[in-house]
Structures are given as C-alpha cells and as structure tokens.
TrEMBL record:
Keywords: Hydrolase. It holds the Pfam family Abhydrolase_1. This is AB hydrolase-1 domain-containing protein. InterPro entries: AB_hydrolase_1, AB_hydrolase_fold, Carboxylesterase_BioH, Peptidase_S33, Pro_imino_pep. Gene3D superfamilies: alpha/beta hydrolase (3.40.50.1820). One of its GO terms (molecular function) is peptidase activity. Belongs to the peptidase S33 family. Residues 37-295 form the AB hydrolase-1 domain. Coiled coil: none annotated. NCBIfam families: pro_imino_pep_2 (TIGR01250). One of its GO terms (biological process) is proteolysis.
C-alpha cells in the first residue's frame, strides 16, 4: 500500500485586537491537486481540536478526497489566548469566520476546483454561517450533528434530560441552582449524558476522544467563554446564537446528519431541512453525537454517506 501523503503547517493569522503573532495549525491528508476538491474539516467544542475527527482521513483512501484538518484559534496546536478568558465580545462567530477565510487564502483553495466543507457540532454551526455568505469555491457542505440555533439546542438538551433517571435530573437541577458543577451528583449525571447521547460506545471514552477531552480540560478559555460550564449549562457568548435567518442564503448542496440519540436533537435539525434550498437529511439509527466514532457499523455508514455525497456528480435533495 502506498504511503499516505501528510503535510502539516501553520497559517499566520492576524487578529487586530491581539498584539502577538497568532497562527492556525493545519494538517493535510492526501495531495492538494487541482482536479479534486479537498474537504476542510472543522471541529466542535468549541475548543476540542481536530483529532477526534481523524476518522474522516479515510476519505482520501476510500474516495480520493484530500482532507484538511485544522485546530481553531485558542485550542490544541494553534495559538492559545488565555488572556481572553471570559471576554464574550472577543469569542464570537466572526473571529472563526475570519480564521477560516485566512486558512482558505493561505492554502489558495478558492479557485477551481474549490473545496468541500464538513463541520461537526460547533464546527457545523460555523459551517452553516460560513456557507450562507456564499463563499467563492465552496462546492458542497456537510453539517454533522450541528445546531441551527442555541435556543433550539437548549430545548433539545431539555428533552434529553427528561429521559434521564429522576435522581439524576434532581442532581442536575440542584447542582445548577448552586453552581456546583464539580459535585459527585453532577459528574455522575454528566457521565450518563455523555455515554447515552454524546458517544454511544461500550468503553467510554473511546481513544479517539482522549485528545479532545485533554484540550478542553487543560485550557478552558474558549469552551467556558463560548458555551458555559458544561454541555448541560449553556450560558456563554453563543447563548443567543442562531443561523436560522441566514439558512435560505445557502446555495451549496448540503448534507445534514445526526444520530437517533444525538445531543443535537432532531428539533435543531429541522430548520436546516426546511430552509436550506438544496438539502438532504439523514439520521443514523442508534447513533449519538459522534456517530463517526461508534461501532455497530455506524462509523462505516457515516463515511459511506459522506464520501458518496461529496463525490456524486448529481445532487438530488430528499424533499
């Protein structure tokens, strides 16, 4: 088997309000030839880093699609900005839009054949907003377990909480009222939530998730400021975020997917399906928020659905 081409680099990223040099780390799997659009992969969190999405590196071997991973500013191997912890006006969608634009220009991806974009969770939120600008070069869009709005996301989380054992619901409510997010009752309930809705595997967490958990625990700047103290308490700078009014502006053919038990509940996928002009929505049976890491054939089905969507010549939506 031929050796897989891998290239790593840093894209200098100038942030007007930061006086120090900043950069975005990226990793290219495959060859960035001029006849095949690469797939840019945006991670979630915010602040989780790219490693838990390396499953999608197989798009190069299986479908001949070069894949570009990157760590968003503030986390993992890109520049960290702990001095901006708690600065809600700084940690906003527009910062990451600017970073993505900068990376596209650094890699010269806007000209033919263009590029595809896959965003998972928060990366999908960013991707939907990005695609609504109709950026030059964008060919196809994949929104993987994304949210159309934070308000709908909170409603979806509430529905999932109602499926948890009553004692855990009580523990969550009491911990949130007191702000005690390190209490044993809260941690037990959060562990149940992760295992049943985030990543449905026998041995949690799977090895692929460990780097993301490490990034999120070692530097809480981005996640705590943008999301909140935990996945179940979203009071950060994204608390009023929505892309719903912008969805009709997306012209790229779009694949939306989530899992049957996903933390990104069906109710947060509905606006994507109803408002994006050319769209297909698939829900993976038995899946959680990270179907691409799960067993029982879900990992393979995700790759097949995504790979075929990105390589098929014609697109027919699911309406």
């Amino acid at each position: 088997m031929a050796e897989i081409p891998i290239r790593e680099g840093q894209a200098p990223f100038k942030i007007p309000t930061i006086n120090e040099p900043c950069f975005t780390y990226y990793k290219v799997i495959g060859n960035l030839s001029r006849d095949t659009p690469p797939v840019i992969i945006a991670h979630g969190g915010p602040g989780a880093g790219h490693e838990y999405l390396l499953t999608f590196a197989d798009l190069w071997q299986d479908y001949g699609l070069p894949v570009i991973f990157y760590d968003q500013i503030g986390c993992a191997t890109s520049t960290h900005l702990p001095q901006k912890a708690g600065d809600r006006s700084f940690w906003q969608e527009q910062l990451f839009q600017g970073e993505l634009d900068n990376l596209l220009d650094h890699l010269d991806l806007r000209r033919d054949p263009g590029f595809h974009f896959l965003g998972q969770s928060w990366g999908g939120m960013l991707g939907a907003a990005f695609a609504a600008r109709r950026p030059r070069g964008l060919r196809r869009l994949v929104l993987a377990s994304a949210l159309a709005s934070r308000e709908l996301g909170i409603r979806g989380t509430r529905l999932l909480r109602e499926q948890m054992p009553p004692d855990m619901q009580k523990g969550l409510n009491e911990a949130e009222e007191k702000g005690e997010y390190e209490s044993p009752a809260y941690k037990e309930a959060l562990d149940f939530y992760y295992r049943n809705f985030a990543c449905r595997v026998d041995a949690f967490p799977p090895p692929e998730m460990l780097p993301a958990l490490k990034h999120l625990s070692e530097d809480t700047t981005v996640y705590r400021t943008m999301n909140g103290p935990s996945p179940l308490t979203a009071d950060g700078s994204l608390s009023t975020w929505t892309v719903i009014p912008r969805l009709p502006q997306i012209t790229a053919p779009t694949l939306v997917y989530n899992g049957e038990y996903d933390t990104s509940h069906d109710i947060v996928q509905v606006p994507f399906f109803e408002l994006i002009p050319r769209v297909r929505w698939i829900t993976f049976s038995g899946g959680g928020h990270m179907c691409h890491l799960e067993g029982e054939g879900r990992r393979e089905r995700v790759l097949k659905v995504v790979g075929e969507f990105l390589t098929q010549e014609e697109f027919a939506d699911a309406r």
